[in-house]
Amino acid sequence: MPATLLVLPRHISFSIPSLSSTSMKLGPSLRAPRAVPAFCRIFPFKLKYQGMLGRVFHVRMLSSQPYRERNWSRPDGSRSSSRDAAAVRDGGRGPRRSLIDDEAQLSDWVGDRRTGSFKGKRASEDDGSDRERAPGRGRTKFGEAKRRRETDTGDFGESERQRTRRAPTRTFGRESSRPPRQLDSEGDDGFPPLRKSWGDNPTRGNMNPRAGQRAGRRDFGQRTSKPRDGEGAVSRFQSEEERMDLTDLISEDESEVDDSDEDELVKSSNGSLPGIEKKVAQVSSGQSDSYLSETRFDQCAVSPLSLKGIRDAGYEKMTVVQEATLPVILKGKDVLAKARTGTGKTVAFLLPSIEVVLKSPAPERDQKRPPIFVLVICPTRELASQAAAEANTLLKYHPSIGVQVVIGGTRLALEQKRMQTNPCQILVATPGRLKDHIENTAGFATRLMGVKVLVLDEADQLLDMGFQKDIERIIAAIPKQRQTLLFSATVPEKVRRISHIALKRDHEFINTVEEGSEETHTQVRQMQLVAPLNKQFSILYSILKDHIADDVNYKVLVFCTTAMVTAFVADLLGELNLNVREIHSRKSQSYRTKVSEEFRKSKGLILVTSDVSARGVDYPDVTLVIQIGLPADREQYIHRLGRTGRKGKEGQGILMLAPWEEFFLSTVRDLPITEAPVPSVDPETKKKVEKSLSHVEMKSKESAYQAWLGYYNSNKKIGSDKSKLVELANDFSRCMGLDTPPAIPKLVIGKMGLRNVPGLRSR
Ligand SMILES: Nc1ncnc2c1ncn2[C@@H]1O[C@H](COP(=O)(O)OP(=O)(O)OP(=O)(O)O)[C@@H](O)[C@H]1O
């Protein structure tokens, strides 16, 4: 479909604020002649394609063996027909068309409360067959966990705090020895006074020792030691469903478990890291990191038909991570690869995986349970669909190789049928749905016994707390004799230590992020802004307005802490007449797919999102990423930011925190995050935002309040002082325009461990 058809028309009444009417004013220290909007001065450089500049470190280990294309003939000697070919390709893309709406993940009480209505210019949700349930449901052995199995961030029977409890709370070596940085503005308990007067101290102390330095002035010799992993942060493994599904929240007594034992366990496991480390530096040119190598794909020992597909996709040179990993993977080695966001990791694992399929025996014509040769696991549905689409691009000239995708939120039976009737040598899956098939799909376990390559995309997330158990179960269902490929933009040491769950001990760790350089892109300008909650919505609106005025092709992602907070912020921005969409786990899969596709192809659009878009999703030309509230952890901050600045392009990122969330900055202090001046908001803007807040439905606010409380309750630092937590939540409720905080079901309060906490209203 031509892209133009998918670009939503801009709203007729939508007007881009003129330069002179910009409502976001800088503090006095930064007041300057207003020739350009304030935002332009904060982010002075224009977004433009950086090209493929920069130097790279070359690895030439490519085989000189001529490639022999496998003849994919049927047992009767005939080639697959073009109809088969179409079926194969459709098979991979099929899910996008055949996805059904499924709101089954809604916990009951949330279901009652959500309105699901669109505000402002947001498209109305497709409600068609929303309530249709997967037939496979209810047959699972995992009972209660089943309901949550389809979540994106994976929760299969463990509560957040149980997982947090098991989590190592310290990191290793020198990184762990440094105490957390004390911030001037924090009290002893990490909570600064709640109500800071607006406009005071616009020039907060800079969190980054190198703040203000721009690309080209970085000192790679001085490596800032990393902060403690996940220090005080909310676990990213708490699924959105879980955050809202308070039956999953654990009881007070469990919350008292000390995790010092875990520390000891981690300490005692300190030793040399498994695998052979290979540093393949992606050298920073000082301006923009070059993500392309000098090696062309046609210099590689891959199938000429794959090369044809690659050429059609417009790829000529390999990216650095592709160049570094391909020869090693082709040799059959297990690989753990780390490369910055948006640098082509998907092709890096798919291309050699396709080679494995090509070298495998073609399935018999009447084979009832033909083997699956390649299993790719992704943490989110969007990512799985995207990886399958990329595979189909590479397989354009391999019509007999089929890619199927199995993800939550779609009918299990449909997937079962598709896998039965279409070729499926490559399977891309989310962990929960994969487990469903292992348990409920006849013959599936047998087919999995053919797996020769296992890929974990976003490996650190899949191997860490939230998914680990499921991945272990899945690994137990595939042959030990296989090749395993782990890819991610972030590989914390604690994940390397547990990588033996999936990898052979002699695997290669290929790291394309140069020692001493940041895990983020230098061409992405990162800023942090600390402002009290009651100013944040106005500031957000001002930032967006100025960005829109500055760049007519704006494409903005606004990350929020939970699904319900995402829905609320989207409602608000819709009321403010911004062109906005929302995506989060509370939306049906068909809706998510639709919005995701729309955002991919659009310009002039804001997507308010939860962490379902944090990792891997490849939206081209995102101009700005805003993160409001505490990111789950350092890694999640990096992945969210990585939605901009892809393929060497420029981008901007703003992290907006409340003063009591400022402690998070210590976990990212080695990143070049500069301080944004706290803008003053003119009275007109303030009034407009207040009016729009009053138009947002009560149910949206109530759900956001409860979700907010759940999210911060699970944060070690903020959730440990329950009275303070409730105080903050009630402040958030006031900021949404509520005079009285919404009442919460007694059961839920109990589950959250908030019984008898003053300030909470129960019902
Ligand atoms: N060799 C290449 N030349 C040009 N573009 C490429 C090449 N390989 C991949 N791409 C494109 O680069 C973009 C980013 O790729 P991809 O999504 O695989 O990045 P990633 O490293 O997995 O990012 P993330 O860490 O966010 O998951 C995609 O649009 C992809 O099609």
Automatic annotation (TrEMBL):
Compositionally biased intervals (Acidic residues): 250-264
Region of interest called Disordered, as start-end residue ranges on this chain: 67-272
EC code: 3.6.4.13
Pfam families: DEAD (PF00270), Helicase_C (PF00271)
Protein name listed in UniProt: ATP-dependent RNA helicase
Segments forming domain DEAD-box RNA helicase Q: 295-323
Function: RNA helicase.
Keyword list, A-Z: ATP-binding, Helicase, Hydrolase, Nucleotide-binding, RNA-binding
GO molecular function, one term: ATP binding
Domains as described in the record: The Q motif is unique to and characteristic of the DEAD box family of RNA helicases and controls ATP binding and hydrolysis.
Keyword field contains Transmembrane helix: no
